[in-house]
Design brief:
Chain A: Keywords: Cell membrane, Electron transport, Heme, Iron, Membrane, Metal-binding, Transmembrane, Transmembrane helix, Transport. Chain A: It is found in: Cell membrane. The complex is a heterodimer of chains A (224) and B (165). Chain A has 224 residues and is an all-alpha fold. Chain A has a single domain, classed as Up-down Bundle (Cytochrome Bc1 Complex, Chain C), CATH 1.20.810.10. In chain A, 71% of the residues lie in helices and 0% in strands. In chain A, helix 3 runs antiparallel to helix 5 and helix 5 runs antiparallel to helix 6. Chain B is an alpha+beta fold and 165 residues long. Chain B has 2 domains: 33 residues; 114 residues, Rieske Iron-sulfur Protein. Chain B is built from 2 helices and 9 strands, in the order ααβββββββββ. The relative contact order of chain B is 0.15. The chains are: A mainly alpha (224), B alpha+beta (165). At the A-B interface, helix 3, helix 4 and helix 5 of A face helix 1 of B.
Amino acid sequence: MLQKLYDWVDERVDVNPIWRDIADHEVPEHVNPAYHFSAFVYCFGGLTFFVTVIQILSGMFLTMYYVPDIENAWNSVYYLQMEVAHGQIVRGMHHWGASVVTVMLFLHTLRVFFQGAYKKPRELNWIVGVLLFFVILGLGFTGYLLPWDNKAYFATQVGLEIAAATPVIGDQLRTLLAGDQTIVGAQTLTRFFAIHVFFLPAALFVLLGAHFVLIRRQGISGPL
Amino acid sequence: MSEPKKVSRRQFLNYTLTGLGGFMAAGMMAPMVRFAIDPVFKPSAAGEFTSVADVEELTNEPQRFEWEIEQVDGWYESKVQKSAWVYRNEDDEIVALSPVCTHLGCTVDWASNEEYPNQFFCPCHAGRYTKDGVNIPGTPPTAPLPVYESKVEEGMLYLGQEIAR
């Protein structure tokens, strides 16, 4: 049945070469933990991506209940966590996953750094990776405010003060992030929400695409 | 005599890896899907009655009564205005009709059109209903007016959910 469906599409679109180009590549021996257990360090990038996918999915589902408004944000989070079936799990996935992404990303960075895998010709991919790191940190920072509880509020207060410490443009930067010159409130919350669910994910997709294309073009760095 | 089917190493790996991958994906997706479809499984507000009027007030002529209910909409609680046309029919039973036209949701009025003194009339598209709320063929509404669940306790009329007919 499934085979027939596949054949039907393949007959018309010739999908075989497409997925072969994407998926059909041998894993080099020095990268395969089945040969050398220590090669598990090469998994961190893939794990980062895997957890990122979980973040995207759980985040999409959370927006079915969440409202980015100071009157309702906390209540809607409380509702989805306490009243909606499996709300605790879905929000838990997003909450803990946020930390796991950052940890995996860090381990991946350490591996690339200590193996010198960032050296020519892969400097460009290192730069893309660093940008991805900033995007992920930005996602963590903006997502932290969204439950609109005390912890979120004061953490953002601190974050905004850090932004304000930027030389020359500090105050403008703070205002740009907070949406108001003095208040951390309604406009800050919608702003952070927009950045969290639209702007940063868009940047994330573009950068991830570039990251993967570059890996394909350049191959995985050779054995040490 | 047919040989027992041999499963090749490639097939075996394909099946187990697809199975394992599917199992993991399902484990990941299951809570999220259940989370998303939760509204379907929430208990309905049926069975909640509100005191609307003194039974003594009811006559054979439909009268309009209004009342408020506490509506809980997820994390948002509010008061919602409800209204009904209530009267006693020939068998002395209490009938409470929703005033919301089944055509496009305007509010119907009792005997507001002089040509049809014994009918409910909707001003938006001239929809008409008989006194028991049945839509009159040839006018826009396609269904009778919904009826409220009702009960009488200690001389007071209680109305619950409206039921489409």
